TrEMBL record:
<feature type="domain" description="F-box">
    <location>
        <begin position="9"/>
        <end position="48"/>
    </location>
</feature>
<dbReference type="Pfam" id="PF00646">
    <property type="entry name" value="F-box"/>
</dbReference>
<dbReference type="InterPro" id="IPR036047">
    <property type="entry name" value="F-box-like_dom_sf"/>
</dbReference>
<dbReference type="InterPro" id="IPR001810">
    <property type="entry name" value="F-box_dom"/>
</dbReference>
<protein>
    <recommendedName>
        <fullName>F-box domain-containing protein</fullName>
    </recommendedName>
</protein>
Amino acid sequence: MPAAAALMDELVEEFLLRLPPDDPASLVNAALVCKRWGRLIAGPAFRRKFRKIHRTKLLHMARGQEAELNPRYCHRHCS
C-alpha cells in the first residue's frame, strides 16, 4: 500500500473512532460509504480501539455530608 493510502486510512480511522458510541447508526452508515471503510470498521483492531476510547467510566457523585453516609455512584460516559 502506498504511503499516501496508508496515511488516508489512518486519518479515516481517527475520524471514525470519534463517532459517538450512543448513536450506532452513524457507525453503520459510515461502514456503508465504501468497501474500504467497511473493512476498516469490521476489523478487530478498529473495534478494540473504539471500545478502548469509548469505555464507560464510573464517576463518584457526592453531595455534601450525605456522601459520607451514603456514597452514590453514577454510571456516565466520559469523553
